Amino acid sequence: MKKNSFLPVIIGTGFGSGFSPFAPGTAGALLATLIWFGLSYLVSSVCLLWLTVALILVFTLAGVWAANRLEASWGKDPSRVVVDEMVGVWIALLAAPAGHVWYALGAFVLFRLFDIFKPLGIRRMESLPGGIGVMADDILSGVYGFIILIVTRWIIS
Fold it and tell me: Which of 66, 82, 97, 145 could disulfide-link 18, Cβ–Cβ 3.0 to 4.6 Å?
């Protein structure tokens, strides 16, 4: 890796959460959930929705870039790269009401289950090249988590 590789490491490892010795993907998703939850108490519900969309867009693009840079020295889809988990859980959290701990926990758990077991075409996304493949499976896991959570909210209400 080049001398100026600090930024890809910070982005790719989810601000260092990917260096967790135990379950780095879970650590990255947990950090993203805590960021979202903290923001939910600082801004309005509408602002939280738009901030979450912005986080998803910015970190998806930055994640593809960082993963492409880091794969050159860390190998294909390295476990330390967790920005994909952050984006995935933020997608699932789009279905959670602001500040609602149980829905936030539900989004986190649903996302992680889809990410770990990779059903319904999620595993196939990993075969896409480079940073796109790193991000795509977690994006789809987040979409599935979002769908389950939004349907659950509709049934409950």
Answer: 82
Kindly state whether residue 27 falls inside one of the protein's structural domains. Answer: yes
How would residue 4 be classed by pLDDT, with cut points 50, 70 and 90? low
29-33 contacts at long range (C-beta below 8 A, 24 or more positions apart) = 29/82, 29/85, 29/86, 29/88, 29/89, 29/108, 29/111, 29/112, 29/115, 30/108, 31/86, 32/85, 32/86, 32/87, 32/89, 32/90, 32/93, 33/89, 33/93, 33/104, 33/107, 33/108
pTM over 0.90: yes
Percentage of the chain exceeding pLDDT 90:
96
Number of domains in the chain: 1
Q: Is residue 35 part of a domain?
A: yes
Radius of gyration of the chain (CA): 15
Averaged pLDDT for residues 57-81? 96
